[in-house]
Amino acid sequence: MPFLRIWIHAVWATKSRYPYLKKDIRYKVFQHIKEYGQSKDIYVDHINGHIDHVHCLISMNANQNIATIMNLLKGESSSWINKNKITSKYFGWQDEYFAVSISHSHRNRVRIYIRNQEQHHLRKTFEEEYQELIDKYGFECIFPGSKRKA
Question: Which range marks the domain in which residue 78 is found?
């Protein structure tokens, strides 16, 4: 049995960044994502977000990859939201996502950052936050809403 600890900070947005995830809805959605992840052996350590996006701290197993994890979490949750009519309009996630590895020693800092999303977005828009993450991690590609060009 392999021993590994790979922490991933993943962020993804609603389709067209529409504010579907109002407070009364988002906690149901986040709880569902966490429970669904557990059923697929995806350990979602922390999940939170705001009206138009989600942050997850995920610990990956040896037999997992980030593309599969993201497809499972995003795909199943959007189907669940629509099947259960959680939102008044048809729900979807953007195809893109942001994912970076973090060190085991920084996981508490990331947990706090994820936990405080509501307060964080009183001062900063998601576009500003996303741009900071792109700059911080040196992504050199074009993201929707990003001011950085390839």
Answer: 6-122
